[in-house]
Structure prediction request, 362 residues.
Amino acid sequence: MSALDFPQTSTVRRIADDERARVLAAPGFGTHFTDFMAHARWTEESGWGESSVLPYGPLQLSPAAAVLHYGQEIFEGLKAFRHADGSVWTFRPEANAERMQRSARRLALPELPVEDFLASLRAVTAADEPWVPKATSEESLYLRPFMFASEEFLGVRASQTVDYYVIASPAGPYFPRGVQPLVVWITDEYARAGAGGTGAAKCGGNYASSLLGKREAAENGADEVLFLDSETHASIDELSGMNVFALTRDGRLLTPALTGSILEGVTRASILRLAADRGLEVVEQRLVMSEVLDQLGTGEITEMFACGTAAVINPIGSFAARGGSWTVGDGGSGEVTLALRQELTDIQYGRVPDRHGWLTRL
Ligand code: COI
Prediction:
């Protein structure tokens, strides 16, 4: 039972029906926002309270708000899917709620109870129900819960006032080219996170530290950047916002182990389960980049892909770095990659039975 009830303060929509229909016809990713947002405030003195669903719009924030200076902020990403009968569901939301609690602990922010996290998702999705794309598309309503230090204070300590919001954005494919093989740039200059740092937390700082690498990737004609571990610069961590997998010819599905410096992806965990279900041997271990590149050359590794809530599962077609370039398989979309993607999205859109009980009705 949620302690926060998120009453809706207004039912006036900010976007007209015809404009919403235009947006939903081609939502892209992350550029359009809905009519409402959920909010709750925490204070050191009173804990969580003041919850509501408000019209979506700019926030009022002191220029001295701690988040603007010290980056005390965390977020989550999950999706609402419409099923053929019109109902709206989300995927493993407790896993996101629990990860947000772990991120909160690492960033010295207050933990939001799982039930309140779920209540906030329900509240915003109910208010924004017309924004959940039709079941006939492979589109969804992307939900972005986030929490930040809003106290007006310039000393360095954990904020005593924290604001939590959930905004929503109709989402098509994360990559502008759709589900096409990615060109991935291996940066030898930047690392995303280091030992003992915040790499496993979903905090803005990790994404900020990925941006120069992403720019370097784009300047070299690549879609994404791959970060190596900060200590040895030898093993694969992750992309700017996605975990990485490799499939071997003899049926092993490899992914970097959770070392504390990579994100514990909900999609990553779900893929490990679906892959094991279909008889693949799943291996979480240190993946040395040079060995992976050698195994691409010998054909030992046949497929690679990136995954995350936003990106779902996206094939990797090739790697590039200052020292050369390497093709994954024939450079196209791997068969197992696409089969896993199909199975995952079939579960999310209710097209096959939810045998692991991963769906929650919103
Ligand atoms: C997500 O996949 O939900 C993320 O938060 C990652 C970001 C690249 C959009």
User: Anything to note?
Assistant: The pocket of 2-OXO-4-methylpentanoic acid is lined by residues 77, 241, 308-310 (CB under 6 Å). Residues 182-349 form a domain with the D-amino Acid Aminotransferase; Chain A, domain 2 fold (CATH 3.20.10.10).
